[in-house]
Amino acid sequence: MTSRIPRTIAIILAGSAMAVAGLTMQTLTRNRFVAPDTAGTLDAATLGLVLGAMYVPSAPIYLRMVIAVVFALAGTGLFLLLLQRLQFRDIVVVPLMGLMLGAVFNAASVFLAYREGLLQTLVTWISGDFSGTLRGRYELLYVVAALTILTYWFAERFTIAGIGRDFAVNLGLDHGRTVLIGMGLVASSSAVVVVVVGEIPLLGLVVPNIVTLALGDRLRRVLPVAAVAGAILLLLADIGSRTVRHPYEVPVGVVLGVVGGFAFLAIVLRSRGRVG
Amino acid sequence: MIEVRSLVKRYGDTTVLDCPDLTLDGAGVTALVGANGAGKSTLLTIAGRLLEPTSGTVLVDGHDVTTAPSRELAARVAILRQENNLAVRLTVRELVEFGRFPYSQGRLTDDDHRLVDRALDTLELHEFAARRLDELSGGQRQRAFIAAVVAQDTDHVLLDEPLNNLDLRHAAQSMAMIRRLADEFGKTVVVVLHDINVAAHHADRIVAMRSGRVVADGEPSTVIDEPTMREVFGLDVEVTEHHGRPVVLHFLAS
Amino acid sequence: MSVDTEPIRGEPIRGGTFRPRRSIVVTAVIGVAFLIAVACFMTYDLRGSLSYALELRARKVAAMTLVGVGLSVATVLFHTVSGNRILTPALMGFDALYILLQTVAAYLFGTFAFLRIEVRVRFLGELAVMMLFALFLNHIFLRRTRGDVVLLMLAGVVMSGMFRAIGNLVARLIDPNEFVALQDRLFASFSSVDEQLLGASAVCVAVALVVVWRMRYQLDAVALGHDHASSLGVDVDRVTRVSMALVAVLVAVPTALVGAITFLGLLASNGVYLATRTFRHRSTVPAAALAGATILIAAQFVIEEFFAFNTRASMVLAFFGGIAFIALLLKEQRR
After folding, report:
1. What is the model's pTM?
2. CATH number for A184
3. How many domains in chain A?
4. Which chains touch C (3 or more CB pairs under 8 A)?
5. Do C168 and A268 touch (CB under 8 A)?
6. Which CATH class for the C31-334 domain?
7. A82 and A97 in contact (C-beta within 8 Å)?
């Protein structure tokens, strides 16, 4: 029981954070395929973790969290910078570029981990997993809760920014700053999730797509729904991860990677069908 | 009142706009006309503070658009361009409500709701209010964006080629609506138009531009004559008259 | 290379009658670079028994040449058939599948038992699975998505993600000590290539290359797009099918032989497109083949001599290849 309560809280916070992160990124970049997984954010955070483990191995977890957040912010910033240089923001070129950026960060992580003999440890970090959720660690996720609430506070502005730069400036909004604030908030929260539970793939991509398809793009309305849906989906995935190979656990990241992969493909096929 | 003060915009060595002095004042529709690349949209977007000038500035009611707080300007001047996210899944009402953002910052008062309703009425969008933008036709979507500008309720309204992608019927409706903004609501409307005849018929004043400079400025009947049209468009045209307004027979040019 | 040989922009086939001259020069330059790379690799800092060291290095060079040629030509073919210059077979999930295959086999049989399996059996097994995957890709995606590169790419990315997720799961189940042994199989390695396998692989790749060469003019037509090529009387579907089978061979054989090397084909092919400014396969195929081998040998040389084996060519290529890919995207967009 003592491990169940923290675990449940951790799942709810992480699931909602990833969904909100994906939703916010999709709105601000005006691209439905952008999420922490496809903007280089998660891979940058992981690179931060690897470097932290190499150079300050005895550092307390909150310091490692800070390092991962800094890397996630830098990685996402680089993504935005590259995005600005893309003239025609084709719907798939943008996530493709983000994925490649992530691949570069990942290559650096693997390179370092290989040299240090940390490769298997790296694999463990990467796959999102709640089996090790215990007191003293999951509390960091309260930071995530704070960041998610702050994101909600800006919801209206993010929606306006997502309509277009001209529209936003016309309404007196500093578009560039709004995008930076939004991307910064959600990059930070997904980095904290990476530190505490690992990478949770595809949740940030799939949940917002389904929720906005049904309820529209006004963040003030859909953001809470996305948060709840993300939490529920992650809880379900967690139950699945515990029952597939009972009494062993399959990391929840794997369950999501496979199930979410199919769901994502289905969504893409659908959107293609409608556009083309 | 919109005052242009020694405004220059350059890209590298190319000067795309050089407008020493221009004042737009009072209720009415002013049309900016000219060939592609004449600098009319550049002038409009600088006045709407979407683009930074190289030097000089534009004053809106005495507020310098390059330095005044953007939020303050948002209550005085509204600009609409074509480059918005058209696939955004907002209802028409939600979009129009965002027009009140400069005043409400997201919390709409009764007054705000009244203005939103008025804007929907003006654009005849009430029946579409609950529809999502991604489900509307191009013309309806265009009207929704104009309604957001109307809801913003600024004294100055800048529209960049609002007739683009509209068919004849919707273009005519939009122009009639733009006239109403000036006549009923007393707004200063500045509109970039491609079609000189639409400008001749609907505008109170025409500012004709070529190569970044204003070459003619005045009422349609004084601006539109054969020599000026040749200078502005580089085209020999015939000008005739219809109900006291000039008509340019540009399609007869050889 | 004078200005008057510049192709006109928008011309359907880049490079008119003057083109071959430039591409021949480029191919010759790459050829010389290849020879230099081989010479460096063979002779630099030789120690101990000369004949033994030379034989060892010659085998490595042969393996690297095979891999470089196979992956680069496969990428050129894939570009032509899919009608874009960004996708690579590796991005379609081949690399991730290879890693998954290794990890799953190691888990099922036990790492040490797995590594002791007769190399030829292992090679054939891996080859079979990779070929099946290529055929599956061809069947499901090239047919169903018909020219929709975007969908193809997303499908590949998602499949890579799924393979990787499962691979990660299995990796956690493996005993840490065993994992260290497995780890060496996950990254391309040239140090212990079986001589007989090398021979068999060379035959496979050579046969595939012959077929590619004979199709070179049809491939030129296919590069114009489905409709153009059809109106020119080319059986596009057949060329596509054959090309995908060739891609499968040219990717599966090198990967089963040494391991996964992402981005090598992408770097070589796009470098060649830039340098030769032509899309004629009689020029791009040989040039890309040489370029791929050269890049790999040069990278391996630098790593062996200056990084003291503490890293792998595939990792370095993944890092720089990713950066090159992003640069390419930005450049393509600016057109």
Report:
1. 0.80
2. 1.10.3470.10
3. 1
4. A
5. no
6. mainly alpha
7. yes
